[in-house]
Amino acid sequence: MDEDRTAGGEDAPRDPGPPSGGRDRHETPLERADRNFGELLQELRVTQTGVQILFAFLLTLAFTPRFPSLDAVQRATYIATLLLAVLAAALFTAPAALHRALFRRGAKPQIVEMSSRLATAGLSVLMLALAGSVLLVVDVTAGRVAGIAAGAGTFAVCVGLWGVLPRLVRRSLTRAQEGTDSPSP
């Protein structure tokens, strides 16, 4: 991860960064970028595995004996979900390609920023792919209404866990930090 260090990087001024409850890291901007990129790669390893499993599952569906009996809506759902899984896989692997293309160019902070955006977009697309997969499977096995309900429920759970929950935690952290920053009476 040190490939973007420039000569004299060890003497770069330390950046305390955002308040962290008295646990400032005192790292240089480049050290912070290296750490953030490592953390992002760990997150991508987890999500990429899930996307690969989903994509493999979807690919095999077209070759099952029951596939020809799907109706037009089920086929459209299948194709849309398959394409969403491909897009999610592309978004989750793009940070590696970006890093490779910009390796040793001193662009680690930009790589981290763009990779974070790609990962966020990948999670949004993955959310749709998961909901579509559940919709399709439940539609085929239990009927259209049940499929729509299960797909909507899957989407709602993902929105709640991946979108709403992090915002609530961020808000509570902000309030706690604001409470410690206010002067005492």
Summary tags:
185 residues; disordered N terminus; mainly alpha
Folded structure, characterized:
This protein has 185 residues and is mostly helical. It has helices spanning 29-61, 72-101, 108-142, 144-181. Helix 1 runs antiparallel to helix 2, helix 2 (72-101) packs antiparallel against helix 3 (108-142) and helix 3 (108-142) runs antiparallel to helix 4 (144-181). The model is unreliable at 1-11 (pLDDT under 50).
> How many E strands?
0
Mean pLDDT over the residues: 87
Distance between the termini: 47 Å
- Rg: 22 Å
Strand content: under 5%
H/E element sequence: HHHH
Number of helices: 4
Gross morphology is flat
Residue runs with pLDDT of under 50 for 5 or more positions: 1-11
Largest sheet: none
Helix content class: over 70%
